[in-house]
Amino acid sequence: PGLTLCGLPRRHAGSDLVTRVIQTVMSCIGARAPTVVLSKGVARASSGRPMLAAAIRRVSAPGRALMQRPAAVPSVALPFAARRGYPTNVFNHANRVAAKAAVSEAEVAVEEQPVKLLTSDESEELLKIRHTTAHICAMAVQRLFPTAQVTIGPWIDRGFYYDFDYPAGFSDKDLKDIKKQMIKIINKDFPLRREEVSREEARKRIEALNEPYKLEILDAIKTEPITIYHIGDEWWDLCAGPHVESTKAIHPKAIDLESVAGAYWRGDEKRPMLQRIYGTAWSTPEELKAYNDFKAEAARRDHRKVGKDLNLFSIQQEDVGGGLVFWHPKGALMRDMIERFWKDIHLERGYDLLYTPHVGKLDLWKTSGHADFYSENMYRPIDVEDETYQLKPMNCPFHVAVYKDGYFSYRDLPIRWAEMGTVYRYERSGTMHGLFRVRGFTQDDAHIFCLPDQIADEIKGVLDLTEDILSTFGFKEFEVNLSTQPEKSVGGPEIWDKAEGALKDALAQKGWDYEVDEGGGAFYGPKIDIKILDAIGRKWQCSTVQLDFNLPERFDLAYIDKENVKQRPIMIHRAIFGSLERFFGILTENYAGAFPLWIAPTQVRLLPVTDAVDDYVQETARKLRAAGIRCDVQSQERLAKLVRNAEKAKIPVMCVVGEQEAKDGTLAVRTYADGDQGVLSVDDVVARISAANQGKCEKF
Length: 700
Description:
Elements: E1 4-6, H1 10-13, H2 16-28, E2 35-39, E3 42-46, H3 54-57, H4 61-67, E4 75-77, H5 79-83, H6 89-111, H7 124-144, E5 149-150, E6 155-156, E7 159-165, H8 172-187, E8 192-197, H9 199-209, H10 212-220, E9 226-231, E10 235-238, E11 255-264, E12 273-281, H11 285-301, H12 303-309, E13 313-314, E14 326-327, H13 329-348, E15 352-353, E16 359-361, H14 362-368, H15 370-373, E17 382-384, E18 387-391, H16 396-404, E19 415-424, E20 440-450, H17 455-472, E21 478-483, H18 493-510, E22 515-517, E23 527-533, E24 539-548, H19 551-554, E25 559-560, E26 566-567, E27 570-575, H20 580-591, E28 604-608, H21 614-626, E29 631-633, H22 639-648, E30 653-657, H23 659-664, E31 666-671, E32 675-681, H24 682-695
Parallel strand pairs: 15-19, 21-22, 28-29, 28-30
Antiparallel strand pairs: 1-4, 2-3, 5-7, 6-7, 7-12, 8-9, 9-10, 11-12, 13-14, 16-18, 17-18, 19-20, 20-27, 21-23, 23-24, 24-27, 25-26, 30-31, 31-32
Helix pairs in contact: 7-8, 9-10, 12-20, 17-18
């Protein structure tokens, strides 16, 4: 009754061969065949309660030694069956089958090179392919649906889209028909020809085709001559390029149409609703397959699905309203840990904490400029006792108000104030997306008021803090952009040069590579934007550091310098998470819900296999909780189901408890990340998890 299957690939563990092996041997020894439980590609076997976790507990040191083989050569270990003289030849056969398959997999892994999925910005060739495929898509649509009017069709990161005015809409069957038509066009090997025409000639041709959206696009083009790209002699579009030379340059098996969505013309909800066809295009079929695999993995990690499966949060659009987040107990616990960590490290780095109101007088937002330049993202004002108030879309004017309430000399600067401040911004219903785009969210805002010659040191401190915080959550690869003075800006050239130089110096001190976005800064100051890379290579905009010469001027902020003269302080805006909700969504997708041990809502699950050990289990749970370890107890099911449920809930540490464990004061430990950890004392488990909590560690 003690069988352990170790390290088998999933397909072998679930195969008829292994099932027959298990059933044959167990019938030979007069035992019930165990249930095979699959998790993370590792097969393990267990029977019901009478086994009392023997499959874990009774793997002695010699037995475990059998398991410690190279990962490429899995093993089937039967230490106790062999010890008792039961036949093992059938297991040796299974070992040979598994080892042979593993070696084959290893050979394939050596031969196959990873497929790189480049974005359009990273590959000129792919950019041309995607742009041309967008044109081919439009041509195919107008062949099949002659009344569809064309608008715009740009390339995007890993594909393209094209917007059509076609009120009837496109069905899934339509997309299949459009793709077939696209392949026909590709196989015709039509040349793509660039033509330059006058504005008058372009207008004449567009009017002849009755394409009103193209006329609007033509009117928006300020340069001449006007360029047109033809596909053969049948179809053309206003376009600046670039394109491939011929449709044959596109592999017909490396394109796909992915979905249809609604999109307002020019993003204006008062304009017509268009049909947007999204597609993707690659150089080879292998790249398309890799992209589809990537999409499938991204779907598996989708924070909306994982959040629901793990009961972390909800957005109850119908009953409460869209874009408003409800944090459930487990998600709220994680949020609290994130906030406490954030506050503690800020206090260590010399910040003070602020709490500010959720509403303020509208006059405040007029002074800051938000009422004039940001009104489309703000909710309607609220009338209160003959005064007008505004839900805050930003925290910065409130921090400015705190500064104005004081009196500061140059000796007081720099001042660093940080706040987890909830803000409210209007988002159209069609743009909201889980935790990534919501209407109420919490920004980890901080504002630094400093002297001009303190800018470089303060920016360096912000970058150090950003790196320390993000790396604690497992994000250690960054993409950095520096945006410089735009054409229209406030502040003189001297302060802009000093500020940009300070940002460059801070980045140089960090040793970070960065791209310069010339003229891409905000009108009120230059900025650094930081994107993080997740586990599957996606980039997420999170952190930003911005210098502001505008608000100190608008609010008449001042400090007293050495000469007892009032001077303007420099104001630095910075956020590291960006928003807590969005960061939580990114964190969830990065780990696919299998969170690091230190932040997991439930760190340990105790799994008693008999009622006889309940007292020991409850005593152990109390000891774990007293040490600050988050644990729960699950029972009243077969061991296989208990373990399966714990793995589905992605519990980092599972501890099986049978009569022998209760007698010895131990736990049979298994982790979600690394599988069987053997039998450990309760004190050892407490010590290891406590150390993980202290060191913010991912694993047991």
